[in-house]
Design a protein that fits this description.
15 helices, GMP Synthetase, Chain A, domain 3, alpha/beta, Rossmann fold, 26% strand, 3 domains, eight-stranded mixed sheet
């Protein structure tokens, strides 16, 4: 079976070693390695046959955590086509959809030649193409009726060997922007190929439970899990009870979740009795985690926790290993540099800052994005001389650990001092009665910024009164760090990456 040197070609070579092995499982079925490979190669062959002399751009509008999402991306990338995820900007919630206007804009900006869909999204796809002057071909992994190219009907359409420039965009995913307009982030083949290096070198077969959207970092985790000779189990979103039961049923070895989901997992009534002995890697990412809650997680799950710090633009930046989670001081960090190089720069004059001094975290990495789609000005502001300016604030200590202190846009200046919300949030969650916390700035009637906080309390936490939390913060930090307002919420709104939505909380507080 000929293949190419893309990450997809390498994965298919691994799958060829044992074609009868089950490699993909979901609610309604499973696929063996042989069937998986046939589906990818057949779809790739049909796409190539209908594309003429140029590589197609394949927009994917499917249920995010479905087999089709993975198979269609592989088929597109196997022939050097760009795969465009058209469903969501959300790296945590597969059900958080792009608007139809945003989908139309993305189709136009990418010049999509094929719109690959499933039955659930066929009507929406027809509506989209009706608004385009040059509509893409509709396609699907099966017979969806007239006007839809069947990518599974490809006798003698094995894809040819094609040269693929390493700097060609392989995958375009969307992330939510501060302006409300989603930003398309393009990652090239060189970067995507590099993602699976770890999987190819694994000495064990990962069994990965995918609950985060396959359109984002969860998709790369699926790639290197398959490259390890392992398999993937798909869940359409995160439910703590279902995750605990799936771990036992499928002998899951690998999870990737957000910190709030980690808290829900360890607080679930079934967590204490669930069989979690198969887990080797419980990775969390997307937001700073509470050191106090991490201490609880270590006691609950053992030496399996791995923190991955990264951004959509820079990829994975830092990692905190399971052994490092045993150190209380290190639980307040996001680990050491995982790949590439990190520098801390003054956000105003952009000079490099010495060890221990806080500034903007800048990254030069093989995992960095290629560009923001259709926005060269924003790309130029974000990537300068090969360095991605993350907008995160932090410092490096003498041992090379990264300490996050928040975002440039989130710093609250009140009473003449700058307060980093993450510092206040970590101090609040260190109180035994607090489950979650968010700190943010709100201008008062005189437009003077005041520090506010929102907390979610543990059940029965009678001692966690607002006055008690004020005393706790004053003792743990300083009186200047005590918010003007502390509100108790049943739950916190979250952003697309699973972080507490400070902007929404601030807007609600201003009403």
């Amino acid at each position: 079976m000929p293949t190419n040197d893309t990450y997809v070609g390498r994965i298919l070579q691994v799958l060829a070693d044992d074609p009868a092995r089950t490699v993909l499982t979901w609610q309604h079925g499973s696929l063996t390695a042989g069937a998986f490979t046939t589906a990818v190669r057949t779809a790739a062959g049909v796409l190539h046959r209908h594309s003429g002399d140029r590589a197609p751009v394949v927009a994917i509008l499917t249920t995010t955590n479905s087999p089709a999402t993975l198979l269609l991306r592989y088929a597109a990338n196997l022939i050097g086509a760009t795969a465009v995820h058209l469903h969501t900007t959300n790296a945590v919630d597969p059900e958080d959809r792009l608007t139809s206007d945003a989908e139309l804009a993305l189709l136009a900006e990418t010049g999509a030649t094929v719109l690959a869909v499933d039955a659930e999204h066929l009507a929406a796809a027809r509506e989209l193409t009706a608004h385009l002057a040059q509509p893409p071909i509709l396609a699907a992994l099966g017979d969806l009726g007239p006007g839809v190219l069947d990518l599974s009907a490809g006798a003698d359409t094995d894809p040819p060997e094609v040269p693929i420039p390493p700097d060609r965009a392989a995958v375009i995913s969307c992330t939510s922007g501060t302006t409300g307009r989603p930003k398309g982030i393009a990652v090239d083949f060189r970067t995507r190929n590099g993602f699976i290096t770890a999987g190819l070198q694994m000495a064990w077969r990962a069994v990965y439970l995918a609950t985060l959207p396959m359109s984002h970092s969860s998709g790369a985790t699926a790639d290197d899990s398959l490259a390890s000779g392992g398999s993937v189990v798909l869940h359409q979103g995160f439910d703590a009870g279902e995750v605990l039961r799936a771990v036992a049923e499928h002998r899951i070895t690998r999870l990737l979740i957000s910190p709030p989901q980690l808290y829900r997992l360890m607080d679930h009534p079934e967590a204490a009795s669930a069989d979690l002995s198969s887990i080797s890697m419980l990775c969390y990412t997307g937001a700073p985690a509470s050191p106090a809650r991490l201490a609880e997680a270590v006691e609950r799950f053992g030496d399996v926790l791995i923190q991955i710090y990264g951004t959509s633009e820079a990829g994975a930046i830092g990692m905190l290993t399971p052994a490092e989670h045993r150190d209380p001081d290190l639980r307040a960090t996001v680990g050491r540099v995982l790949a590439g190089e990190v520098r801390i720069r003054d956000p105003h004059d952009h000079r490099d800052l010495p060890t221990g001094e806080a500034g903007e975290i800048c990254v030069r990495s093989p995992f960095a994005m290629r560009e923001y789609l259709g926005d060269p000005e924003l790309t130029a502001r974000t990537v300068r001389d090969g360095w991605v300016h993350t907008g995160d604030l932090g410092r490096l200590d003498e041992r090379g650990y990264i300490h996050l202190s928040g975002r440039l846009a989130d710093v609250v200046k009140t009473n003449g001092i700058k307060i980093h919300p993450t510092t206040v949030e970590h101090a609040l969650t260190a109180h035994p009665g607090v489950l979650q916390a968010a700190a943010f700035g709100v201008p008062d009637a005189d437009l003077v910024e005041q520090l506010h906080a929102a907390v979610v309390l543990r059940d029965g936490a009678a001692a966690a009164t607002v006055p008690a939390l004020r005393e706790h913060l004053a003792a743990a930090l300083s009186p200047q760090h005590v918010p003007a307002v502390i509100d108790v919420h049943p739950e916190l709104p979250l952003t697309a990456t699973g972080k507490p939505d400070r902007a929404r909380l601030a807007a609600d507080a201003r009403r």
